[in-house]
Amino acid sequence: MICQVLIPRLGEIPKVKSLVHAHLAGEELTIEYTSGLQGTASRRRGLVDNWLFNCGCARCLDPTELGSFLSALRCFKCRQDFLLCHFDALEWVCRGCGYKIGDNEATELIEGIQEKVSRLSIFGPIDQWEGLLSEMESLIHPDHSLAMDVKRILIQVLGGHPDYPLHSLGDDALARKISLCQNYLQVYDKASKENSAG
Predict the structure, then answer these.
(1) What is the dihedral sign for C-alpha 2, 195, 107, 70?
(2) Rounded CA separation 160/44 (Å)
(3) CA-to-CA distance for 122 and 178, rounded, in angstroms?
(4) Which domains does the chain have, with CATH numbers?
(5) Contact assessment for residue 60 and residue 43, using Cβ atoms and an 8 Å cutoff
(6) Residues 149-155: contacts with CB under 8 Å, at least 24 apart
(7) pLDDT digits (tens, 9 = 90+) for 29-82
């Protein structure tokens, strides 16, 4: 939605124009303040820090983030399921075994992974990026926002880098690129379902 607010003169009523037609009177208009593939944990912190509000959209209120799992961490205890952030209590709870960790512990893990991602060159060898992705998936959900960042880099490098031109990619590399693209689109579709505004 593209929206324009007309600043009124003193005593006038403000007017809002939108390029998207509201279908029903009283229908809520939503605005996406952040990237659609940013996890709720970091999105909500940014909304409070930058926009001074706590978002109450469907995605922000759902620990699975509408099934996208963009913030989910692999459970430290059972290793079979995922820790989901419950913002009302600032804790992460495994949906399988019930194991809990605090927000500080989750933040430390995420920052450690972010540090590893930042150490790699975007033009580094694909096997380094694939190795990091494999390592990450032992700590976070395969569709976590950080994993999606690495997948986006792989999508760009496979066929878009001078060392890996599209015309020279073998069948396995092309299949990998297609698989990464399909996953990326599926996760984005889940994360941007109707009624999510954060």
Answers:
(1) negative
(2) 33
(3) 19
(4) 40-191 (1.25.40)
(5) yes
(6) 149/37, 149/117, 150/117, 151/180, 151/183, 151/184, 152/184, 153/122, 153/129, 154/126, 154/129, 154/130, 154/180, 155/180, 155/181, 155/184
(7) 666 777 777 888 777 777 777 777 778 888 888 999 999 999 999 999 999 999
